[in-house]
Amino acid sequence: xxxxxxxxxxxxxxxxxxxxxxxxxxxxxxxxxxxxxxxxxxxxxxxxxxxxxxxxxxxxxxxxxxxxxxxxxxxxxxxxxxxxxxxxxxxxxxxxxxxxxxxxxxxxxxxxxxxxxxxxxxxxxxxxxxxxxxxxxxxxxxxxxxxxxxxxxxxxxxxxxxxxxxxxxxxxxxxxxxxxxxxxxxxxxxxxxxxxxxxxxxxxxxxxxxxxxxxxxxxxxxxxxxxxxxxxxxxxxxxxxxxxxxxxxxxxxxxxxxxxxxxxxxxxxxxxxxxxxxxxxxxxxxxxxxxxxxx
Length: 295
Known about the structure:
CATH architecture of the largest domain: Up-down Bundle
Shape: elongated
Low-confidence stretches: none
Radius of gyration: 26 Å
CATH superfamily of the largest domain: Cation efflux protein transmembrane domain
Number of helices: 8
Mean pLDDT: 81
């Protein structure tokens, strides 16, 4: 479907002399490349790990999302610059009759496909599908904006304000560029945070809540947790401090406790990487940022 939008936008944009439609085609073309990368990334993450990538391929999801966010911001910059240039240089003649038909067809198609994917992902709950569907939302908004603007411009030819037609296309470029900023940042900001290694507060608090319960249940002396997220994968490391005279000594018993903690944390097995260690000295524990006052 996105391929049809891309080809249709490029062809119709050139034919009708509309930079706004051309922008829609360019965005869809970029979206196709991103979708192919997402499919490849999804195949990699199923492998979990390899000899060269021993901690898995989950960071690839964040990298692909970063690429999509950056590409979308480039398109925003293109839309704003072309729109402003058009306004400052006397507008642009556009064949609005053809443009209206294009906008009607793809407004219906884009919103229908967005709704379908959104509904389907309620069952799948895929991180990649969620952010991939943002591109459909952006494209649907683009098509809707084109439909409203081109319909208005087409009707202007029957009024005394027909001379305003030449400014419609540049104005659409500016408006659409501004509208695309927010969805772009919704894609870009989470991916940047993940690649920078910023610990997600929600996951951190969840792990702390789970471990507080086990601290009381098994009489642990203390614990330290470290968390990170790459795409849909949750990286969770927990170091448990035990008293020297702790009654449980067998490794198999500690394995059972690990299993209990892992089950209490939740999430599907392929969505998490959990490491739980037991020690009697703080030397082998990670730094406790909650208690030393360091942000």
